[in-house]
Amino acid sequence: MAAIDAYFVLDDFAFPTPSHAITPDPGDARVIQLCDAVVSAITDALDPSDTTTVARCYLPEIDPETLSGRHVRVFPLDYSQAGIATRGLDTNQYGVGILVVEKYTAQVDIAATTADAWTDVRVKWVQDYIFDLLGTARIDDMTAALLAEDTWPETGEVASVYDAEMLREHKLFWSESAFAFRRDE
After folding, report:
1. Coil/strand/helix, residue 15
2. pLDDT per position as a tens digit, 111-167
3. pTM for this structure?
4. Of 181, 55, 50, which is closest to residue 121 (Cα–Cα)?
5. 102-110 long-range contacts, Cβ below 8 Å, gap at least 24?
6. What's the CATH code, domain 7-184?
7. If we measure between CA atoms, which residue out of 97, 46, 107, 105 comes closest to residue 74?
8. In angstroms, how far is CA 74 from the centroid of its own chain?
9. How would DSSP label each residue in 19-68?
10. Using alpha carbons only, what angle is made at residue 57 by residues 65 and 159, rounded to the nearest 5 degrees?
11. Who has greater pLDDT, 20 or 153?
12. What residues does each domain of the chain span?
């Protein structure tokens, strides 16, 4: 499966139109629209010199032998009715998962101190560009730029800061996060 290189911006989840935006099929499920908005938000937050690849995909193909660079994969987790907003509106919740993977490329064995320092930088990157960007339940300028005014972050969790087995066996930094967004509809 080839990586999806298209990023979308929708009226429902609008923020400043990035240069890579295209108009998706308006029939996309709302959870997919939200995933596409998250992809755009992460991409827009990156420094222009950052070569991180960010895409929405269901089955990320991660080959430890050929992987190079940092890869962020965004995918839908779930959606549900979380409550009743008014007599005419429900509060719906949409779950979005994020996987961050990067190959340790040093030509030496992964020694504990080297692995610690290298992993520290990746853990900080996840905090800065995933959790801090998406994980606040308070509506601030950054959150408002990500989501339409009728959508808000409910919860955010970095469920796996790093996977020790993936680092040890495959020299991969592997971090998994989950976010829940709510919207009255």
Report:
1. coil
2. 555 678 889 999 999 999 999 988 776 655 555 555 666 788 888 999 999 999 998
3. 0.79
4. 50
5. 102/67, 102/69, 102/70, 102/71, 102/172, 102/173, 103/64, 103/67, 103/68, 103/69, 103/171, 103/172, 103/173, 104/167, 104/171, 104/172, 104/173, 105/68, 105/171, 110/167, 110/168, 110/171
6. 3.30.2000.30
7. 97
8. 5
9. TTEE---TTS-HHHHHHHHHHHHHHHHS-TT---EEEE-SS----TTT--
10. 80
11. 153
12. 7-184
Percentage helix, strand, coil for the chain under 3-state DSSP, each rounded to 5: 30, 30, 40
| Mean pLDDT of the 91-107 span | 89
29 phi and psi, to 5 degrees?
Answer: -60, 150
pLDDT digits 0-9 by tens, 21-80:
444 455 678 899 889 889 988 999 999 999 999 999 988 778 888 888 899 999 999 999
Return the structure tokens found at 176. 């998994």
